[in-house]
Design brief:
173 residues; 5 helices; mainly alpha
Length: 173
């Protein structure tokens, strides 16, 4: 009877249940995607709750504000405008994560979704720029939203290039 020689790594891998580092990484990646999906759905619920709490919050903000002007109406208009765009962002993110769960990463739909996300960020930056007339600190949100919009544009271009390379590789023998 011939005895098979196994290395120390293979014995350890067998003792751990036979998983390689690659399969462990994939499992943790799948778990991460599921966690992300749950967090997106939680954010949707929290945004719905915020829609109902915002009028009272705006009144309280005005009570504690150091400025004497009335910003309740502009604040509510800004919040609800950004919330509408925020829901679009959450639904698009949910769709993007669903595609990734289904192992559809470098596809035209994801490029379209990334483009929509970047446009939404730019829209929020314009909305908060208008509100910055009332509160100068709104410029922070304006800058952050525009910055995220730019980052998403770069990621979208990377996805386009990856998709082009994949298609080119598919046609190569």
């Amino acid at each position: 009877m011939k005895e098979e020689k196994t290395s120390g790594r293979e014995r350890i891998r067998w003792q751990k249940g036979g998983r390689s580092k690659k399969s462990e990484f994939l499992i943790s990646g799948e778990r991460s995607i599921k966690i992300t999906s749950v967090l997106i759905k939680l954010a949707m619920v929290l945004c719905v709750i915020a829609l109902f709490l915002m009028p009272q919050s705006a009144k309280r903000y005005e009570e504690f504000s150091l400025y004497g002007d009335n910003v309740t109406v502009p604040l509510l208009i800004t919040f609800y405008s950004c919330a509408a765009v925020g829901f679009v962002i959450l639904f698009v993110l949910d769709r993007l994560v669903l595609n990734m769960q289904n192992k559809k990463v470098f596809i035209p739909e994801n490029i379209k979704l990334l483009r929509i996300l970047s446009y939404c960020c730019f829209i929020i930056s314009v909305i908060t720029l208008v509100f910055a007339r009332y509160r100068i600190l709104a410029f922070i949100v304006t800058f952050a939203a525009a910055f995220f919009g730019l980052i998403l544009r770069v990621i979208k271009h990377c996805f386009e290039e990856a998709m082009r390379l994949r298609e080119e590789n598919d046609f190569t023998i």
